[in-house]
Design a protein that fits this description.
261 residues; alpha+beta; 4-stranded antiparallel sheet; 45% helix; 13% strand
Length: 261
Amino acid sequence: MKVRLAIAVALASYAVFVCWFVGALGTLGDTIDKHYQDMANQPLPYATIVHPEDARYGLVVPTWRWLENGGQWQLVSKTAPIDIGFTPKSLETLSIPYGDWIIDNRLQTAANKQLAELAHAAEKAGYPIIVTSSFRSSSDQQELLESSVAEYGAAWANEFIATPGHSEHQLGLAVDLSSYTPACKANFSNCNLGEPTAQWLATHAPQYGFIVRYPEDKVAITGVSHESWHFRFVGKRLATYLDREGLVLDQVVPSILEKKP
């Protein structure tokens, strides 16, 4: 009797295990199918791993599209210009407060969505923010440069204002932020990104795909003075990688492009 009972228990346990295993395989199969479907939707080669100098870990590059014109990972700097006539295709109106005086209140869709989530988290933490600059065309950039030279002088403008074709704002993936106040919303001269807010953003922005593009300790690399208010959207994958490794876009993108077929 005891033997029969033991056999019955063993068979029941085996049946439960088989059911669980088949179910697990089904779930795993669905995951694998989705993974390969995602890869199939990417241009070939669909993935590359790069290991930038000074980085502890490598970075997976899932698609080269992110490095094309207007792509999330495109490098735009004093030495890496963008086509002066480029305009992003997916621009939409900002979904968080912005200055009434902003020339153009648009941002690329992916960046705009994540900015809204970042702003919500910042407000919840007690650090409400407002956009003081978003997308700027090359003609808008030229106008800003000329007005800055007239108001602050050529030396100041050369340090803080990019020339047309060399500004990340033309990508529609960069924003300048300020602590929110009604006075700032009405007039740019009243805007200021408070230090506590700047620190909170620098710490939490990578979780939403944004980075402080010009850190204080990377001026020699970026060629741009520290701007605590200037944030660039690169997506969560790269933002968290740069934050963890203590690197800037200028140190990583060239390593990626070296592997591009």
